[in-house]
Amino acid sequence: MKAATKVLDAYAILAFLEDQPGADVVKQLIERAIEDRTKLAMSVVNLGEVWYVLARAESAEFADQMVSDIQGMAIEVVDADWPQARQAAAFKAALKMSYADCFAASLAKLRKGEVVTGDREFKAVEDEVRIALI
What we know:
Layout: E1 6-8, H1 10-17, H2 23-34, E2 40-43, H3 44-57, H4 60-71, E3 75-78, H5 82-94, H6 99-111, E4 114-117, E5 130-133
């Protein structure tokens, strides 16, 4: 039986791309997803966050290439629809979290999955969403 969806936030993807602490955990999750043993997803809002961090650090062209690489991995990039945006907005209205992080939490809640991150800000939603810190 497949495990519940693991939702990657920008922190997790950037750790993987930049070989930061937690990169090995994300790499293993991607390998498991390729083998169809787990389901990985990421909100397009969080992918946008990855893009702007990379564009600031390197260039827009570099960010475009990295996003293209990510889109070629076994990670479902989920467009934001109203249910996801509504849940993210509800988290933002009630909690001290960045709006982008609220989208990762929202996707995990709607998919009954867990957020994979190294960002301790997600502790704010751990009563409603499972969090796996890398």
